[in-house]
Amino acid sequence: MTRAAFRCCLALAALALVVTLTAPAQAQEGRVGLLIEPDHARQIGYTTHWAQNLRLARGTRVHQAAVVDGMVLLVEPPGNVLTALSVTDGELLWKRRLGNSREPLHAPQRSGDTIIVNSEHRLFGLSADTGERRFVIELDGPVASPVQLYGRMAIVPGAGGVLYAIDAATGMTQWAQRVPGRITARPAMLDDFVFVADMSGRYALYTLGGRLHWQGRGFGRFEADPVMIDETVFVPSRDATLYAIDTATGNDRWRYIADQPLTVGPRHIDGTVLLPLPGRSLVALDAATGAERWRLAAPMRVVTRRDDGRLVVGSPSRLELIDFDNGRSRGSAPAGSPLHNVLEGPDGSLIAVSAGGRVLRLNRLP
Q1: Does the predicted TM-score (pTM) go above 0.85?
Q2: Contact at 8 Å (CB) between 333 and 36?
Q3: pLDDT at residue 151, rounded to an integer
């Protein structure tokens, strides 16, 4: 190989790695394929920091993404590859294949120095530093959502209608409770309690020791994730109702009736419940009363509330900056490719991810 050809190979290899968008690297942007162009990012108060292209194999897509303690974790079916990137500079830390294509992985989490991710039938524990497998625990029956971690305890929402707790280090079952229907929504946890809602329209609050505190029922299936705060748990139902339930008594505080089934979980931020209406809009409700404060005319999901009192929301086609108090738009950034997810990063940053494996970190402008 000639010296010129060798240099050409090195250059091509470098393009496959992360590009940190300092001023000298701006010329690379067109070849990297940024999800949000720098000029558009500035319209909502951000600047591009780094970009990474995983260059996924044909037929492979990013299905799950999470930002946890200095890492961006990405799940790529059907090969069940878990990829870890540095959230600081986008560098590839490690890749690991888990299980097989017949057991899709749920969203990964981190507990201390261990990455926890579960499939329908197994719970995997990996070293956060290297990705090396530490343990595999066989789960009792299919699991349709991520487990909930509380220290070493993992709360497992069994799709077969059993909620149970296991020691995530040993796999030993601590307790189990049978519920009337299949569980597809992730349980909500707060302090010493865990709330679960099932597909039969029933819900219950348990202590972390497995004792039933109270139970109740709605008028439709519960398949979207609930949210629990100090005194209230907010539970979206396919009966088009958002239930606000008193965590002390199990009684309704209020109900909000939407005009469509609720299939996406809400967010709670500073006394406001932000409820996505898939395909239609985003509604802001007073958390104390259920009164509607404002709504957006387009379907959006909440990304984060900034320290300047504004809200970043997103759809597959764009990010938008809006006033938290009234929902008025303050800027928009179109996406170069459909956005699969946009996550909160450290120091007010955003991590944008496409299904095709492109990842972009946006930092707040000074």
Answers
A1: yes
A2: yes
A3: 83
